[in-house]
Amino acid sequence: MVNFTTVTTLLAIAAAATALPGKALHARQADVSCLDNDGVFVAPGIVSEAVDCINELALKGSQDCTAGLTTSFCRRGNTQITGIFTKAAAGGPATSETTTTTCQDVAQAAGRIMDFCSQGSGNVKGQTTAFANTDMLVDIRLVEQ
Fold first, then answer.
1. Radius of gyration over alpha carbons of the chain, in Å?
2. Which tens digit of pLDDT belongs to each residue from 24-56?
3. pLDDT band at residue 88 using 50, 70 and 90 as cut-offs
4. 92 or 31: which carries more pLDDT confidence?
5. I need a surface site. Which of 26, 47, 73, 113 has the fewest CB within 10 A?
6. Which long-range contacts (CB under 8 A, 24 or more apart) does 1-5 make?
7. Do 103 and 61 touch, CB atoms closer than 8 A?
8. What is the DSSP string of 92-126?
9. Domain ranges across the chain
């Protein structure tokens, strides 16, 4: 028979060990830009389309997602999740023309954008760095057909 007190204690320890400290959570939120100050240059994508893309990328797991200057990782309808190699985009000295992380990492970054930038209207737009590769910017937005 399982001891309820032991199970509860183990769950509490696991939750405490995996929770982000307040400063780390704030830092992650600060890394996300909802592109609110871009005027009309970036239109928001549709939340349901972005969710489909995030699920697709998550299913790819440890498969490589490689970004160049701008690389589309997934598009549903008019909503696109894009990877941008930040060194190439900045025009600075890039050691290579691409950067790579896992597709799961891209999905997690896109999920973070969804957490902080989804609008009550059912739209989303924003960008943040990939978790494991800060040279890659992950972006969600509306694209023209």
1. 18
2. 433 455 689 998 876 656 788 999 999 999 999
3. low
4. 31
5. 26
6. none
7. yes
8. S--SSS-EEEEHHHHHHHHHHHHHHHB-TTSEE-E
9. 25-142
